[in-house]
Fold these 2 entries.
Entry 1:
Amino acid sequence: MNAASNPLLQQFLQESRDALEGIAGSLMALERNPADSALLDDLFRVVHTLKGNCGLFDFPDMFRVIHAAEDLLSAVREGHLAYDGDMADAVLDAMDFVSLQLDEIGTGAIPDAAHGPAAVALAERLCALSGDAEASDTADGAADTAAPSAARTARMEAALALAPAGLRAGWSEALAAGEALLWIEYTPEAECFFKGEDPLYQAIQLPGVLWQRVVPAEAWPALPELDPYRCNLVFQAVSGAARAEVEEHFRYVPDQVWIDDLPAAAAAAAPQEDERLADALAIVQAQGQALWSTGDTPWVPGRLLAAVAAIRGCMTAVGRGALLAELDGCLADALARRTVAPVLAWIERHAQGAAHDEVQAAPAALPETVRAGDATAADSAALADAAPDQKFGRRAEDQGAGRILKVEQSKVDRLMNLIGEMVVARNGLPYLAARAEDHYGVRELAREIKTQHGVINRIVEEMQDAIMQVRMTPVSFVFQRFPRLVRDIARRLGKEVELVLEGEATEADKNVIEALADPLVHIVRNALDHGLETPAARAQAGKPACGRLVIGARQEADRVIIEVSDDGRGIDPAAIRRKAYGKGLIDEGALEGLSDQDSVNLVFLPGFSTAEQVSDLSGRGVGMDAVRSAVDRLGGNVSLSSTAGQGTRMQLSLPLSMAVTNVMVVESGGVQYGVPMDMVVETVRVPAASVHAIKQHRTAVLRGRIVPLRSLNELLALDRPQRHNEHDEMATLVLRVHGQDVGLVIDDFREVVEVILKPMSGILGGLDAYAGSALLGDGSVLMVINPKELLQ
Amino acid sequence: MTIEVNDGVLTCSGTLTVEDAEVLQAQLAQLDGGAGRHADLAGCEHVHAACLQVLMAAGVRVTAWPAGSALAAWLGAALAPA
């Protein structure tokens, strides 16, 4: 089964993933507040819907697990069981399994049959949890099982007696010939309509049906009192299909179906009767059917006379003439009242042959219903009033599909790429205007091109803005995984943690948000593992036993700020220094001169880890280094501050969007380079005379600070000296890199342009010194420098 | 789906879905029960079980059966007089 080619399956996958998120959220909320019945109802409903959806497809493993989870939740909801952490673990594991299956289905594969045992194990674990509640039920139930099966057999025999004799004769021949026939009784549960089931459809699809019957489980109530959404049907059938096939057909509702071999005795019960009698009765019944559909139309008398004549002939032929007197009475009555009812009643009484009493239940209930129907006509207004109310409570969940369009990400990406091309094309217009003026000497045309450029510029900017809005994703996309993550880790570490999420609605570009996920997980793990103490240690330090972890997001100008703070033990600068020295990451000289803040930042050095032991969570010495490089790649900054004993605060600052980058174009060594604008602090021309050499580094004093100067040609290993202007000044870009100002000496400044930055790919991908390349309006390629790497 | 009453005969066509059960119930309740309720199901492609039980409970007499043989067989088993 291919997910891509089946829209229904696609939708199922998407909705199920949404449902899984909802379930995880509800489970966790419930853990905090186990008494919240609304929450429990909600959770149950979502699981229930998931199961219903799953039933549309053939994923038995998934269905089994969800079904078990639903049973467990149902037991909790009905108050048989108290909700606890073990239960949450089991259900969460079950949902993880479902998620895994969904992923497999999503990649176009049929779920691996090898998951079968895992599914069974999960289902058993869930059943074991709900077992406490059901144990008592089963004990009671065991005694009852004998009785229902006897009743079922009786029902079967009664029903079979109604089957036409010709058919029954055929069955007994088939049985005698060694063919297997099945008796199937399908009693859908009363609530089945709410699970999206259609028992009639199920019945119609039943293979090999030879004869069928539908009866009410309980006698029908009067029409107005009938709840159409409580299933009151029993489907009975005789089928020639293989038992396995029938079981497969009912695999989702095995508890509602009774399948048994058709007993030869039941099939043959009737044939002891005179076959002619059976045939005659069949004719009489056919007359009854004809009359039934005639109803009370004007031609009733004619029909009645014809039918009665036929019946009379039949009855006389089989020697039941004695009953005809009664029939004549009924006919007279019927003609007088111009209704077929009395004759039908006669047929019902006498033409059923050896019909069992119980069988009469359905037709017998009928006149009652009809009578009640009379009253109904008058009461129909009341019914109309009542109906909307019922409908409201019942169907509420079906509504509320918002006007939100779900679009594949690739389509949005394509649109964004196209707008990127548009930006480049727009950037070409000023060049064209310049050429018109300089090369062809048509100033008028140049001006018109510039006007047109203005118009196109406005539209392109609006388009950019619009596509950015589309791509904006709330940080909750990343945050929503933390409640589960924090809960699991805290449980494993034996710590108590209260997680506070703030500013979940803050938005940033999808790429930024997605790329943020891994670094944030690292940070949160670190905070839980190293930052927060165990309850005992916290008590000793005079803090509440439950630690507090705050993950917050907010927007500041064109950047999004993510902060993770805890109230744990904080970072001890001295310990960091010792550790860094011990690992050989800093030398003795640096050890002396480091401020406390600088020491804290040592955790970002590659290969640094303070944990005494490597745990499975963190402490392998890759964490903070990985965080820093991931954030750098996004064009962001990380800063860490900590107060020993009071907690740690990690702040990530990221650009809102990465699609369009402002770069300053500079010239160096005869080539144009781009420098990301967000790193440029200022542009200055430094007189060559005011450059001082400290050791082998050149520095200049700018605004009272010493700024180291680096030459771009030197950094790029070009063997040309940097060009000075006519006043012997050096063009210098002051950049802020990792919180420090550095002067980058170049040949000259050019303009600032908006470009679509394309990351380097292939062999060039390994060149860290460049952030990427961009196409300029005149068609030339601009290499954009990555100062963070270049200036290391 | 359409459910309408023509000359006292309830005429259904298309697919009777689970949502139609209440409409059906209301329509049937309005038909005069004393004269018997008649239904023309010839145009039905499928009848949901919820609708079926409304038809059964109302004791309708079916004047025309749907074309689908399996559907007609099951509806007949449920709605035809025994």
Entry 2:
Amino acid sequence: METAAAIHTGSNSSPKLNYLTNGSTLRSWLLTKDHKRIAIMYLITVSVFFLMGGLYAATIRLELLTPASDLLQTATYNKVFTQHGILMIFFFLIPSIPAILGNFLLPLMIGAKDLALPRINLLSLYIYWIAGILALIGLMEGGVDTGWTFYAPYSTTFSNSYVMLVGLGIFINGFSSILTGLNFIVTIHTMRAPGMTWFRLPLFVWAHYAVSLVMVLGTPVVAITILLMAVERVAHVGIFDPAIGGDPILYQHLFWFYSHPAVYIMVLPGMGVVSELIANFSRKRIFGYEFVAFSSIAIAVFGFLVWGHHMFVSGQSVYAGLVFSFLTMVVAVPSAIKMFNWTATLYKGSISFDTPMLYGLAFMGLFLIGGLTGLFLGAIGLTVHLTDTYFVVAHFHYVMVGGQVIAYLGGIHYWWPKITGKMYSEFWSKVSAMLVFVGFNLTFFPQFILGYLGMPRRYAAYPEELQVLNIFSTAGASVLGVGLVMPVGYLIHSLFFGKEAGDNPWLLPGLEWRTSSPPPTENFEVMPVVTWEAYDFGEESGLDIEGARQGETRPATVV
Amino acid sequence: MYDGSYIPIFPEGASTFAGHVDLLYAYLIVVSVVFTIPIVMAIFAFSVMYREKEKFATPEEIHGSMVLETVWSFIPFVVSMTIFIGGALVYFEQYTPPEDGMEVYVVGKQWMWKIQHPTGQREINELHVPVNTNVKLTMTTEDVLHSFYVPAFRTKADVVPGRYTYLWFNATTPGKYHLFCAEYCGLNHSGMIGWVYVMSQEEYAAWLSGNTSGQTPVEMGKDLFETKLGCASCHAGGPAQRGAKLEGIFNTDVKLVGGATVKADENYIRNSILNPASQVVEGFQPIMPTFKGQVTEEQLNALVAYIKSLSPSAAASTGSSTAASNMAADKPAANTAANSAAKTPAANTSANKQPAKATKQ
Amino acid sequence: MSTHTHDHSHHRGLQHQFDNMGQQEESVSIGMWLFLAQEIMFFGGMFTAYLVYRSRFPMAFAAGSNHLDVVMGFVNTLVLIVSSLTMALTVYYAQKSNRTMQVVMIVLTMIFGATFLGVKAVEYTDKYNHGLVPVSGLNKRIPADEHAAPGGHDAKPEPGSPAVAEEHSNPRGEFQWHEYEIIEHTIAKQKADPNGHYLTAAEKVGYMSDPATLTLDKDKFRDKVRIFYFIYFMMTGLHALHMIIGLGLMLWLGWKAFKGTFNADYYMPVEMSGLYWHFVDIVWIFLFPLLYLLGRHFLHELGK
């Protein structure tokens, strides 16, 4: 094996075959084993679900412009917020970064030809499609109105909606998640290039390792929970029905045992992306690399121990509440460690403000607020007042949208040149990022205030004194919506009219940047042998800095 | 009601522990600000100071610092422990009901709150309580999960089918406060709302006896008879008439099942309400339910007064309270008689003039 | 797990993404262990439900368990353990490149697996006949005017068998439970010794029409027994499903072994299939005592 030659930033001018052009029949895409093509197909499907979930969100905010339930019938509104949650959580947030960016980049970042189990990867995609179709059929038939949490006994005995069909879709979707996680763990263990030791891995890889543990071990529990709910619904055996000896709280324990780790499934990959953005756009190794790496694992492990913090007022015992509150405080610490380490990375760096970096910095600020408000909700005396109010809604949107979606967008923008070989308009991407940031805060910050005032969640109608704050929130949502839709425009535009990006437009040391943009099907013409540390921006890692300065230019940054 | 003159930013607190919850909230805001400001300032400062001066620069390698890692692991941990302790203390206050206290029963059902006071008073979507009194709610639900939430008191608890859950508070300020259902329960979840009325002790006592509007006993009795207790559904005539016609019954002789004859005086009327099975009128079925535990003494007096008022000779009788009442009745007996006399024609017009027929089930 | 020391970079079984067989084998192995870990979590949810309800209603669980056929359950346990032996021998013979014995062992494994399923089918049918399926309508319907004269059944009921149930009509195929001797005996003991721990707190309320006097409400007790049977069917049903999948896996493996695919150089698929099979076996090892062996001492107490 030879060392990868020093890479210029120059564009890949000779029209060699890359993974996009290597086979152009539908069959070559649908039956592919190439992780990069699978990632692209995930990208398209995930984007569709995101837009659908976004339409539901817009509907919610429109209804909440007025205190009365006047835009929609309450029955419809109940379905709208339920379906917003289901589509966003199960079909967008959970797959997004791992299935798209993880699938695409993991083999590249570790210097491998593909994931360890490519056919399993394809199976994951098929399962995701089947699950999505089932859920969509359920939605079209009439939808569900149970809330994405499907609490018993409403979902098992009282709801007249398509619980079974949509539940089946979610059940099947779980297996897609499990197989993806399984694949990642195996790949990271066995497919690393020579010299790529664990502590030379990019933090993106560490984050995906941690998230894969959660996906593999947590998802089966929600699978059995949905199965039990479905059996209860059909056969009325009584497992959650107190009239015949069952316990509705058991449902909540089983449900949240997965659904709390699920939020870490959503946010850990985002943190992995942010580590990459901060490090690469400061041209500096992440401060406290080992701490950031291990904090991902710590979050994954501790995340399994705090599910009861969703049940503080459910009727669970006072002592259980105290234990879960304590552990919730503990799980906050690794996230704090990351935040400090990212900030310290900026110190004495060489920071450029390309769009991906803007998203990375936005994540830091917004996740800070989201994470801190999580402490509010973990303080058990306070959460008795705040639980099931808009405070919770604001908190989780700060971490999910302000955190995960921002990180996702940052990742898409960052690796877009690598994935497509084209560069998007820096001007429009910055405008879009600004709109997203401003719109997001205007949408969700008022909801903290609404929550403390006592506005409960899942309400179609609310007391009229709360209207002004709701109007602010809807105004913000319209700005946010514009900002989120814009990338569809300029990114697709870049596919046809964008500048050639070149192999390594920002001259970065990661292995994914040492192959052409877009990469060839087998990822590397010459398999790399790694002799340098992670985030080594100097010449020891083989970067031809002088050559880059003299020769090529980076895509112009317009501010 | 809301008049649009202000935008609420912070809710009023009206319970003994609301202030503690707010204090915890303030502490958390302070903690958040103390962490956010330095970090955000650092981000801004570093972004400006260390913006790239030269393309593809290679800044100094800084791997990390054990000292810093330890400091910024330890301090957040300690701070989060203080938050945990603060939260736990407030939580103990919220979820440890006091030994004494007025017990109220709450049943949630799709989509209303049914509330019952120990004295029998029932309410729907409203809870009247006296100020500065420990109130303990024992709650359950008839169907799905709901959650009883009063933001002004800063407390909530889910209601779970098949078991009881508990809530307590001690309201400090008279007023009217939102009551919400805070656990999604289906179609009309956002309509399962109401009010908690905190009243002074005197107002509460008056409310409890039903005499909130300064009614006379006969007026109150009529209200109870026709509306609140549903007596009219069997006794007011029409096709549903199953009970004895009560107009003109007072102080007459009544023949009972079993042959005995009694006089329909105040005691008789009182006993018919509390223990109807013991004196069924001949020709009628023993189907009247007892109202024992559901009427206060004050209300019994009012009902007796009303039924008396249905008889023309009522004005002449010296009806007075048949039992000592804890709640002082303000109206003197003479007033009652005078009112009854004045009301009699009006009362009679609403009654069924046809002779009561014995009705079979 | 065995190790390979020689390079198989051009082995015909090598998949394109791997550099050598060692890497492929390690990957497949980790993958299978992870898959089994998530299966454990899947069953774990049901074990949790079992744990919760058994700790609340142990008498109902004991009563329900007594009506499971211990003999059949034990036979099944032996069958599975022996099938794990034949499975392990399959791997052994693959390592030894012994094609014939591989196939023999796979066939034997399948026979044992099928036997297990057959016994389960007999058990399930028995439950159907005696009204022990916890879903209304899924039990044998016995019209109201017909009393099952036990023409083909034993005249003398087996200890602990619900022979009494046969005499009851079941026109709508509902869950039937008519055995209250043990619970009544236990309630009597609890009444005689109020400080004793014969019933849990949940039982003192959950079985009773009047908790204060510990008056048994038969319907409420029956409901808790029904929960036991639900968990029984759910857990053994999921297990049986995994066994069916295992049989399918064996069919595929047998075919490949017959074609001579596996030998000393390449037997990973056999080993991985073996892992799956052993996992299914181990789940049963847990299920058998937890479901079948509860409350047997009550039968002795009552002299049955």
